[in-house]
Backbone:
């Protein structure tokens, strides 16, 4: 459900028969990384800052994973009321789900009256995303390890959906560095961070050491029940012929909160007592029909740990530019 | 002055005027001042262009492969534009070219033809020392004036703008393959491998160029992906960066002071 | 001025610390969407991030309110105001739950549709290092940087001031439209509708700030215009952070003057005219 480094590769390999690039870098990569000169994805200011703090770039490292990306749309796999947990069933422990039932006396006014509604977490989508991200990540770390790097800085990750090919590509890259004069990281597994340049220098100066990039996706499916549908679509209430007044659409508000909270929990479970720095939250809602939705929330950032006492920096000098 | 074999006559005339001490440059005032701060003087605005017809190559529907003919076309066209720009710079007696931009333009009159342009500002060291690269040519770099000053402070000097490209055809998937895994999100190792290899090829070629220049490394590497006019399954992976060499001298960049700007 | 720090030594120390147990770890994990700069600025005034917090609220708008009528479209305005209040309340509660003093850098995402308003707020709960628990958490869309500057100047944010208003732009009669078709005239009813919407929206915002006991509202942002699904309805929203002077008097920052030599970097761009 959660991807972070170093990912547990025993967990994310679904098909041991497939010969992916894991443990098997393309010939070109080996040749490139073995050549004498380094390449670095850093901008010049970031490169300068990197040298200033005693980091020696050894090469640009990257990892990929292309996943088939299926569609969990309305009716494609599950009929209304038929959740992956059984007919109207509840999710197993630890998986978010909540049901809503018709307040209109349980009487089916018509076949179309939605007497049932449910919000539930989709752990299988989350797991697939984590697999894609995790595999790409571990390949990047593998490349970095292969060139004897201590860490990977300036990590950039992109997730691209190639709709006409029905695939999603996970791509992660960064610049592998050696900390001059420092011992190899524990387990010889390089640390990773989204930060580079002066931002990284400032973080270290403030007493934090980056450990790994951390990312997770939460996915929540909403099957609207009658009240949600009426509120969202403005259909006439069949009870007394009135419209429903301005009111909170509780099922949706709760689903939105759930997706975000789940993403936060997924990441939290990877942090121990450390800090997630520079979190980036991207929430995306896909409307299917009449209040039915899929809400996805991705959260990523750098896990950092304090290595020295808290020491506030001097207040910066306020300036006004003359140009 | 020897007329370079490769440039149109008009370019020669424009450059002659520049030799009389006038300089032109698309640098901003800030960049101009920083170039001077780094010990260089701008000589003139230089450019190179090549209009290139890209050939056609058969693609196999279900096979991921490099389209070597297209790769060569994309590479040669850029190389021609760059070389012409370097010739202009050479004619001005420049040590290098900063702020190089590479553009591709498509015109309505030429299907399958594209114009590749390289533009930049030629510069020369004020103390007369040569900063030409290992091949005796002016260095090229896509660094801005600010970046140029910064890199000089770190003890590295630019050698050349290096690039590598790879045009790759990504296989279509057969109906049978798609049906077999319907409704599951699983890794497709062949796709992973194909995209991986395409990018690695581009980067390796870039690195090979850097090795030719005997560079210590490449900074500011960018990976770009363009489908140009070939449809979504054919992608050009272009990798670009500035090759640098460690020269004598250590990092002389002072630690920046922290300020908080009250400007909007 | 303290001794300049040896960054190389510091980096080595940091890298070598990875094999050792954490130094003075917090009692639970901390999450923060602040940038390094913002985190450091907060540290410089003795504050720290606690947790990323969210507030979301979806509120329905009854059908048929957009099409005909005159004056303010009260159900739509009410729905919008209620959604913002609801989301901000959840955000404040989440903040209090993790013992934060307030939420800074709140990112506001609003989606107004024909039948509902969807408001989503994301921010980071912050508090003074080893500070006491507050009575009430503030919510502010000011960045941590702005929060720090205000703090240094003696001011404190107290809450999100917000106002929304939707009004009908009356239709002109057929006769009027015909008469005006070849003239240069002010469309007074549109002007009036825009005025009414602005006035009502600003009024809502100001009232919400006064209710909090604010002395002012900073960084007000407004958005306005016709609704895409109903041309004859005009929407107006205004956002800002309500502030109050906490110190005895305003503290002057006395900025230094600098002359920077940086431009926006010229980025490579291959243009393909597809």
Residues:
């Amino acid at each position: 459900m959660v991807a972070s480094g170093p990912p547990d590769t025993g967990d994310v390999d679904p098909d041991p028969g497939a010969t992916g690039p894991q443990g098997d870098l393309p010939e070109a990569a080996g040749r490139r990384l073995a050549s004498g000169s380094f390449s670095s994805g850093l901008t010049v200011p970031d490169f300068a800052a990197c040298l200033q703090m005693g980091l020696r770039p050894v090469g640009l490292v990257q990892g990929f994973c292309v996943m088939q990306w299926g569609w969990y749309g309305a009716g494609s796999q599950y009929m209304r009321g038929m959740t992956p947990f059984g007919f109207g069933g509840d999710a197993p422990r630890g998986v978010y789900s909540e049901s809503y039932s018709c307040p209109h006396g349980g009487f089916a006014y018509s076949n179309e009256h939605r007497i049932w509604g449910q919000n539930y977490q989709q752990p299988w989508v989350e797991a697939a995303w984590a697999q894609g991200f995790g595999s790409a990540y571990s390949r990047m770390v593998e490349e970095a390890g292969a060139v004897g790097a201590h860490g990977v800085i300036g990590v950039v990750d992109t997730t691209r959906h190639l709709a006409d090919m029905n695939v999603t590509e996970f791509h992660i890259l960064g610049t592998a560095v050696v900390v001059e004069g420092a011992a190899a990281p524990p387990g010889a597994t390089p640390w990773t961070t989204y930060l580079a340049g002066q931002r990284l220098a400032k973080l270290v100066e403030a007493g934090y050491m980056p450990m790994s990039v951390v990312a997770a996706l939460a996915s929540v499916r909403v099957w609207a029940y009658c009240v949600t549908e009426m509120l969202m679509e403005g259909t006439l209430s069949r009870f007394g012929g009135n419209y429903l007044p301005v009111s909170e659409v509780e099922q949706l508000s709760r689903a939105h909160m759930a997706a975000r909270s789940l993403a936060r929990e997924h990441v939290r479970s990877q942090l121990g007592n450390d800090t997630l720095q520079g979190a980036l939250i991207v929430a995306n809602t896909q409307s299917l029909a009449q209040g039915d939705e899929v809400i996805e929330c991705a959260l990523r950032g750098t896990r950092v740990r304090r290595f020295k006492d808290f020491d506030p920096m001097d207040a910066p000098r306020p300036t006004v530019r003359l140009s | 002055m020897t007329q370079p074999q490769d440039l149109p006559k008009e370019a020669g005339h424009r450059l002659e005027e520049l030799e009389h001490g006038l300089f032109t440059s698309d640098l901003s005032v800030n960049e101009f001042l920083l170039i001077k701060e780094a010990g260089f003087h701008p000589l003139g605005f230089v450019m190179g262009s090549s209009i290139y017809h890209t050939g056609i190559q058969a693609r196999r529907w279900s096979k991921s492969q490099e389209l070597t003919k297209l790769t060569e076309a994309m590479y040669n066209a850029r190389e021609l534009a760059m070389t012409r720009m370097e010739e202009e710079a050479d004619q001005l007696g420049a040590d290098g070219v900063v702020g190089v931009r590479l553009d591709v333009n498509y015109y309505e009159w030429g299907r399958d033809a594209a114009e590749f342009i390289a533009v930049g500002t030629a510069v020369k060291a004020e103390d007369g020392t040569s900063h030409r690269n290992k091949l005796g040519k002016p260095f090229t770099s896509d660094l801005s004036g600010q970046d140029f000053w910064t890199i000089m402070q770190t003890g590295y000097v630019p050698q050349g703008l290096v690039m590598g490209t790879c045009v790759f055809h990504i296989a279509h998937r057969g109906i049978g393959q798609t049906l077999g895994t319907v409704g599951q999100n699983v890794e497709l190792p062949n796709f992973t491998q194909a995209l991986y290899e395409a990018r690695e090829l581009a980067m390796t070629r870039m690195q090979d160029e850097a090795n030719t220049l005997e560079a210590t490394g490449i900074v500011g590497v960018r990976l770009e992906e363009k489908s140009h006019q070939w449809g979504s399954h054919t992608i050009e992976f272009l990798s670009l960066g500035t090759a640098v060499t460690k020269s004598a001298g250590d990092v002389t960049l002072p630690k920046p002071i922290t300020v908080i700007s009250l400007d909007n | 001025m303290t001794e300049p720090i040896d960054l190389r030594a510091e980096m080595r120390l940091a890298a070598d610390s990875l094999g050792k147990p954490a130094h003075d770890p917090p009692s639970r994990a901390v999450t923060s969407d602040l940038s390094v700069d913002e985190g450091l600025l907060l540290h410089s005034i003795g504050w720290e991030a606690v947790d990323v917090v969210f507030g979301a609220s979806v509120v329905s708008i009854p059908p048929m309110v957009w099409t005909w009528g005159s004056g303010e479209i009260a159900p739509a305005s009410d729905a919008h105001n209620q959604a913002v209040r609801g989301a901000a309340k959840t955000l404040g509660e989440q903040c209090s739950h993790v013992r934060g003093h307030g939420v800074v850098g709140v990112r506001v995402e609003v989606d107004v549709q024909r039948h509902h308003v969807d408001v989503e707020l994301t921010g980071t709960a912050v508090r003074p290092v080893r500070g006491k628990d507050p009575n009430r958490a503030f919510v502010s869309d000011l960045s941590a940087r702005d929060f720090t500057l205000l703090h240094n100047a003696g001011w404190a944010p107290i809450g999100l001031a917000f106002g929304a208003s939707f009004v009908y732009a009356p239709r002109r009669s057929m006769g009027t439209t015909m008469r005006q078709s070849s003239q240069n005239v002010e469309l007074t009813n549109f002007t009036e509708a825009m005025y009414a919407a602005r006035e009502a929206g600003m009024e809502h915002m100001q009232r919400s700030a006064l209710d909090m006991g604010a002395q002012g509202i900073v960084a007000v942002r407004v958005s306005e215009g016709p609704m895409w699904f109903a041309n004859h309805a005009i929407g107006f929203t205004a956002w800002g952070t309500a502030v109050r002077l906490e110190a005895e008097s305003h503290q002057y920052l006395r900025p230094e003057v600098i002359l920077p030599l940086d431009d926006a970097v010229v980025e490579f761009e291959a243009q393909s005219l597809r």
In short: The interface with chain B takes residues 4-5, 7, 41, 145, 148-149, 253, 255-256, 258, 261-263, 265-266, 268-274 of chain C (CB under 8 Å). The radius of gyration of chain C is 24 Å. Residues 28-173+185-245 of chain C form one domain. The longest strand of chain C covers residues 230-245.
